[in-house]
């Protein structure tokens, strides 16, 4: 017998909660997301609820209004915008081999460039890596060889892509 899957049934793992800090969104801790999801379900996604959340190391009661998607710190009365969004799919990790023979992660914006190019290009020439700001060097990425070459200095580094959800291979 085949098991029927509930259509439209959302798992708590499908969503993340974030709060607005300046112009950026900060993702709540996994523990706080679990608490917020539990409360969300208790009130059927309507109205408001109060839950104790971690706030920079302290446990603080926050009231969350689901209509305005505003959260009020019950100790200070300070308010902040919150959002509940679909959890983004896991991402591949891009790394390069340092001079010390250790693998180091690329910055997210650089990993996005590599991820967007690796399936469609055999090689990529670019100046737009975050670590290249102010230097303007051309980098040649050879996806068939998995290397990064600084065309000014001639320095070649190995790079690797770790698929989403996988552990990096041992050195």
From TrEMBL:
- Protein origin, superkingdom: Eukaryota
Q: Where is the WWE domain?
A: 2-84
Per its UniProt record, what Gene3D superfamilies does this chain match?
3.30.720.50
What protein name is recorded for this chain? WWE domain-containing protein
């Amino acid at each position: 017998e085949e098991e029927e899957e509930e259509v439209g049934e959302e798992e708590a793992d499908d969503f993340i909660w974030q709060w607005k800090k300046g112009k950026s969104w900060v993702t709540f801790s996994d523990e706080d997301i679990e608490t917020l999801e539990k409360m969300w379900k208790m009130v059927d996604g309507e109205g408001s609820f109060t839950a104790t959340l971690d706030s920079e190391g302290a446990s603080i009661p926050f009231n969350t209004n689901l209509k305005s998607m505003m959260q009020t710190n019950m100790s200070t009365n300070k308010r902040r915008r919150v959002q509940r969004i679909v959890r983004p799919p896991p991402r591949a990790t891009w790394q390069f081999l340092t001079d010390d023979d250790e693998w180091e992660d690329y910055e997210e914006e650089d990993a996005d460039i590599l991820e967007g190019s690796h399936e469609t290009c055999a090689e990529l020439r670019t100046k737009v890596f975050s670590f290249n700001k102010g230097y303007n060097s051309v980098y040649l990425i050879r996806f068939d060889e998995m290397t990064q070459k600084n065309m000014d200095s001639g320095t070649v580094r190995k790079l690797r892509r770790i698929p989403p959800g996988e552990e990096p291979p041992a050195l």
